[in-house]
Write a structure and sequence with these properties.
globular
C-alpha cells in the first residue's frame, strides 16, 4: 500500500509508492555523449573565463596561467551581478530590488573527464576548501544574506558544460526553502530543546535502516521522507550550523565520506544525473543551536509533473529503507 510520510523538519509530505517502483538498473541512464574538443574550463583556456578569484596549486605567480589544481572564476553569464546597490522599492503591491549578488564557478579539477566519484580524496578536499574560502570572503559583503553552493551533473540535471564544476550564488535574501527549514528547526528546538538533525542522526545510527555510510565525524543517510529515489543527505555527527566551521581535519573526513557516498551512487546508478545543494546557516547568523548544516544529493531519476507542481507532493517509488540497503551493499 502507498504511504504518506511527513518530513520532520519543514512538514513537507511525500508519497512513497513502491508499487510503482523500479529496480535500480531501470533508472540507469544512457551516458551523455561527450562532445570533447574545445572546453573553456580546461587548462590552456584560462583567457576565455573571467579573471579567477581563487586558485590552488599554481607553482608560479602568473595570474590566470595554465598550471593549477582548482580555479574559481565569476560566471560568464551571471544570474546576479556584484556591481551596484540593491535599491529595494515597491510598485503598488509588488516589491522588487536590483539583481545584486555574486555568481561563481568552481572548476573542481584540471582533468576534463574526472568526476566527483573518480576524484582523489585530496582533490575533493580542495573543492570543499574552496567552498569554505569563498563563503568566508563573500560574507564580508554586507549586501549578501545567504550563499547557495550547488552542483548540476549531467544534462538532465541542468549542466551545460561537461568539465566537472560546481557553482555558488550569493543572494541578498535568505531563500524561502532555507527559511522554512530554519523555522521548522526552530519550532522543534523550542518544543524539545534539541536539534532535529541531531535527533535524526541518533535515530538513524540506532535503527540502521536508512544509514548508508559513516566515518568518525560524518554520516550519510537516506532521509525518512525523500523527494527522489536514492536521495541522500551527508551531515556532520557533531552539531555545527555553519559549513565554514570545519577545520582541516574535518574537511578531510568530510571529503573521505563524500567520496565514498558518490562512489556508491555511481555503482548503483551509473551515469545518473544529479544535483547537490549545500544547506548552511545564513551569513549573518553565527552558531545556531537549532540548525545543522548538511549537503543534499538528489539523483535525477524522476520527472516533476502536474501533480507535484499542483500539490507540492513528491511521489517516490523507492522507499528510503530499500535505497539505503542497496547503496550500503554496493
Amino acid at each position: 500500500m502507498p504511504e504518506l510520510r511527513r518530513d520532520p523538519i519543514i512538514g513537507r509530505w511525500v508519497i512513497i509508492a513502491s508499487e510503482r517502483g523500479k529496480r535500480p538498473y531501470d533508472f540507469v541512464k544512457k551516458k551523455d555523449e561527450t562532445k570533447g574538443g574545445y572546453c573553456p574550463l580546461c587548462p590552456g583556456h584560462e583567457n576565455t573565463t573571467p579573471p579567477e578569484v581563487l586558485v590552488y596549486g599554481r607553482p608560479s605567480h602568473d595570474p590566470n596561467g595554465p598550471e593549477w589544481q582548482l580555479r574559481v572564476v565569476p560566471n560568464k553569464f551571471p544570474a546576479l551581478i556584484i556591481e551596484g546597490e540593491l535599491d529595494k522599492r515597491g510598485e503598488g503591491i509588488y516589491d522588487k530590488m536590483n539583481g545584486i549578488g555574486a555568481h561563481e564557478v568552481i572548476i573542481e579539477t584540471p582533468r576534463h573527464y574526472e568526476t566527483l566519484s573518480s576524484m582523489a580524496v585530496e582533490q575533493l578536499v580542495l573543492v570543499f576548501r574552496a567552498y569554505k574560502d569563498r563563503l568566508i570572503d563573500l560574507a564580508r559583503d554586507s549586501r549578501f544574506k545567504y550563499i547557495i553552493v550547488f552542483k548540476n551533473f549531467g544534462k538532465a540535471a541542468g549542466a551545460s558544460l561537461e568539465h566537472s564544476h560546481s557553482q555558488l550564488i550569493a543572494l541578498p535574501i535568505v531563500p524561502q526553502i532555507i527559511q522554512e527549514e530554519l523555522n521548522g528547526c526552530q519550532r522543534y528546538f523550542e518544543y524539545k530543546e534539541r536539534c532535529v538533525f541531531c535527533d535524526i542522526i541518533r535515530q538513524e545510527r540506532s535503527q540502521q535502516t536508512r544509514l548508508v555510510d559513516e566515518n568518525r565525524d560524518f554520516i550519510t543517510i537516506c532521509p525518512f521522507a525523500p523527494r527522489s529515489p536514492f536521495e541522500m543527505w551527508v551531515l556532520p555527527k557533531r552539531h555545527q550550523s555553519r559549513f565554514i566551521s570545519m577545520d582541516d581535519a574535518h574537511l578531510h573526513q568530510f571529503a573521505m565520506l563524500f567520496s565514498s557516498t558518490m562512489k556508491r551512487l555511481d555503482r548503483v546508478l551509473p551515469n545518473i544525473p544529479y544535483n547537490f545543494m549545500l544547506h548552511t546557516a545564513p551569513l549573518r547568523d553565527s552558531h545556531l543551536e537549532h540548525y545543522h548544516w548538511h549537503i543534499e544529493i538528489m539523483p535525477k531519476v524522476s520527472t516533476v509533473a502536474g501533480f507535484e507542481w499542483g500539490t507540492g507532493f513528491h511521489i517516490n517509488t523507492v522507499p528510503p529503507e530499500e535505497a539505503a540497503t542497496i547503496l550500503k551493499s554496493s
